[in-house]
Fold these 4 entries.
Entry 1:
Amino acid sequence: MFEHLTPYAGDPILSLVETFNADPRPHKVNLCIGIYFDNDGKMAQPHSVHIAEERVGMGIKNYLPMEGHAGLRAEIPKLLFGTNHPVITENRVSVVQTLGGSGALRLGADFLHTWLSGGKAYVSDPTWDNHRGIFTAAGFEVGDYPYYNPETIGVKFQELCEFAKSQPENTIFLLHPCCHNPTGVDLSREQWDELLDIFVSHKLIPFMDIAYQGFGDDFDQDAYAVRRAADLGLPLLISSSFSKNMSLYGQRTGGLTVVSPSAEEATLVLGQLQLGIRRIYSTPPAQGGLTAYHVLSNETLTAQWKQEVYKMRDRIRAMRQRIYEVLQQKQPEKDFSYFVKQRGMFSYTGLSVVQVHRLRDEFGVYLLDSGRICIAGLNESNVNYVADCLATVFAE
Ligand code: LMR
């Protein structure tokens, strides 16, 4: 009955983690997945989130509403836009609790495909491995927009702007407001201003995926592009996640926020999102949503949580610095400053597939074939070893 099925080749990130887990070498290092590990190599949860989790206890056994926990839904836009932003006070946001950021992406992609069909979707070149798949699964023809420039280790900004200008109305652009995954290379504020002006004049639709808020500069600055797009009155979709900044990975806690031109439209949008949720998984899980709500609705816990995220951010920065210093000292003829300039958890190393495989096979250092390395997997015990291994393969 199922003989004709095509075999699944596996996911470039999640399947690699399985290979890593099965690797018996004690010195192996997991730098392939976007998870924050602490200096002891443990998946640490911010203490504020732990307190919230204890307060929630066993949580509620009843179903949440289709759209998720009402309190959490009220907090998510404050984190994205800042308290009292006009899109909130004018009731122009529709927010639903989702199954992590991925669930928000799929729900949003399904929504757009149903109600704005005809438009094509573009993802950055390169992007997170699952973006293209999610939009393709929702029925979109998916293309790439110019983004990363390996020559400058920056953004092909003029090409990106020209490309945006050449697209028809209602074309969807999946954007990373901060901590670009996989490159760690972000647009500057001036570049966001220029790009989003093009979105206004050419009636393009930004879908912003913000999975790492707090890990770039701070919670407010990381949301600059989101706020700017809202200020400009753009129709806007935002997928957000508490997987990384609250370490609620397995709880699948995120949100989809849609900004509409009017409160009436926002009500219609919410209805369609509820319907979409009901048709796929009915209601979201309660525990993670309740935990995130407890953190965000309590001023003291929120302040503590933000400081804890900034400590995680600073530890990542310190690891970037260490990698940079070792490599620069060993190979002064090359410029490794990109390791410290890139933001968020990831660094695009520029390593070839052959070099990546050598790191994995010979040294037990796991990173993605694209050369993406998760800096948050480094710590005092492994950073020198990894830096030495990188220096060895860079010297090839
Ligand atoms: C990553 O990029 O490694 C994370 O977002 C985890 C995932 O689901 O791929």
Entry 2:
Amino acid sequence: MTKTIFSRIIDREVPAEILHEDDYCVAFRDVSPQAPVHVLLVPREPIPSIMAIDAAHAKIVGHMWTVVPKLAEQLGLDGGFRVVVNNGADGGQSVDHLHWHILGGRQMTWPPG
Ligand code: AMP
């Protein structure tokens, strides 16, 4: 199976500014930032999407949520931030490797595009 671009970043085959890594996940800056702060949090395991999450992934996914507030603190997002997980074509997902977008550093608007 072809490695996802995020697996290639995790394996240091593709450069990225990595901000956090542990046994379960890695965070790095998005190459095309949509806000002053735009970080992707990605599981090491290439779970393709939200729809592929099952009970066996509970520890990974639960752990990733515990990383979010630590990253927000590290990034100085004291005023708040947004977490987005796009799923499938209609959701705007372009990389088939589960990832949390952490966006901040400006006022977010609603509804999202
Ligand atoms: P999504 O469209 O929700 O699947 O998000 C994929 C994200 O991955 C987009 O925001 C892209 O800008 C980002 N992305 C794609 N390739 C890279 C890369 N090599 N390094 C960092 N971010 C990337």
Entry 3:
Amino acid sequence: MNIILATHNRGKIEEFKRILLDYPVNLSSVFDYGITLEPEETGVTFSENAQIKLDYYLKIIKKNKLHDNSNKNLLIAEDSGIEIEALNGEPGILSARYGGEGLNSMDRNDLVLKNMQGVASKNRKARFVCCIKVVDIEIDFKYEFIGYSEGMIMDNIYGSKGFGYDPIFKPLGYNVSMASLQPEVKDKISHRGLATRKLIKELLDAR
Ligand code: IMP
């Protein structure tokens, strides 16, 4: 089975590769097909944005006949982000763009910490959300899987692994940031790991 990841985010690609390592799949991303364009994320939910990405890349792949017809081909699109209770659910679907286009991940972490200054520990709840949409390229059959990872926003930046908001997020049941955990531990508890394992279970059960 071939799986094409509809993303240009290196952090996500690396995680999908690790999570799917033990499964019989050939994994590639839109990078490998020379596709550099990205759709505008105009949806108002994770699900809508994942659907926009799925439809956008599906059209390009079909139009240019990029997939290998001799095998089953799945296209996977993912939209994810962090919802922070004290910020009324922000950054949410705007996680990649929080604070504006000119910022990098560390600037965004600093901005969250600044906006959370003075918020007591008990009110620092947050969760990562991952919505995965999958389509079988030949038969247009679509599925959706959602994963959540609960935790809280820390008081500072800790750790250097992972990507995005990992350095300021402390997962429930751990005393360190997501960016301090070994990657395999993150995969076990992450929103992406959970949603991907739901997807794999569905695929294996359907065989
Ligand atoms: P998307 O490309 O619109 O789905 O952007 C998702 C954004 O959410 C990323 O750019 C990160 O800022 C954030 N994000 C999603 N998943 C993670 C994660 O596993 N760790 C840290 N940040 C994440």
Entry 4:
Amino acid sequence: MSQILVTGGLGYIGSHTVVELINAGYEPIVIDNLSESPIEVKGRIEKITGKELIFRQVELCNQAEIDAVFEEFPSIQGTIHFAAFLLVNESVHEPLKYYYNNLVSTINLLESMAAHGKRSIVFSSSCTVYGTPENPHVDENAPVQPAESPYGNTKKMGEEILRDFAATGKMDVMSLRYFNPIGAHPTSNIGEFQDGEPHHLVPYITETAIGKRKELRVFGSDYDTRDGSCIRDYIHVIDIAKAHILAVQHLVDGKTKGFDVINLGSGNGSTVLEMINAFERATGIAIPYSLAPRREGDVPAVYANIGKAKEVLNWTPEKSLEDMLRDAWNFEQSLPQE
Ligand code: WQD
């Protein structure tokens, strides 16, 4: 079986990608430093797939630990690199923690891959690189803008590091720019685990629906959009996961040389108020909410042009907004409630 290294493989998108890799007949080699995800996610993945997972606890900021993985698993064909700190507002307060972790881990990984003759890497990037776009319906040619946060800057700089290293001819890179991944595995064994008060919209909606939160605050109702609230492109995490498999195989097959970027979204924009209504339609649960001031750093409107994903990877999203919200709600209900 084709072995694929997955860094941050116990995280939200990483764990769903690991499940889809196994479903597609690959053997993932999962590494994670457990700083953001509990080891119990390993057992949850095994429960879904019925297979034992190859896992090693690895600190990517320690070069020797990555080298040891490539020495233990010489047949690794490609790498999917998820591992990163990813909280926008935490990055504003602790920028050096973000620059050190997210950039040094990427540089170490690239050096180790090149030293062991590996040349295919899929990078987890983000639509945040587009900043506030001129045209909210962005394709991959939209200009990369100055980052709105140190987190967003580490994604932008990560792409630049990968682009420059690819230019040496030693690496082939596919950088996948996620829009807003939401939802969970239909078994509810894995999903977007929260550590304290949710930052993101959909986990906040599901925690409000289950009664953990009193109400949802809608951050901003005076934007220049159809109903005044922000527009985003919400995409099921399983659709995102499947795109990673297509991307890593595309690289292993030598179909992309050098560096390329691809948007991963549904291609549709939804406002915050539309998401509240969509949740109610999907679950029958009305969400109490209030209109609150804008949240600093929010982009008024951004959603993906996904024509390139179709053309290059033959990928199109399969799950509907209703699937996303229902899976997110089922996951919330599966969690122990205080
Ligand atoms: C969505 C919309 C909020 C919470 C983030 C990261 C981005 C990417 C996706 C990694 C916004 C509004 C939210 C709430 C609200 N992650 N909202 N009340 O900020 O679009 O993107 O996740 O790749 O890098 O920045 O996602 O879910 O936080 O917000 O009104 O309680 O929901 O203002 O308009 P965001 P989000």
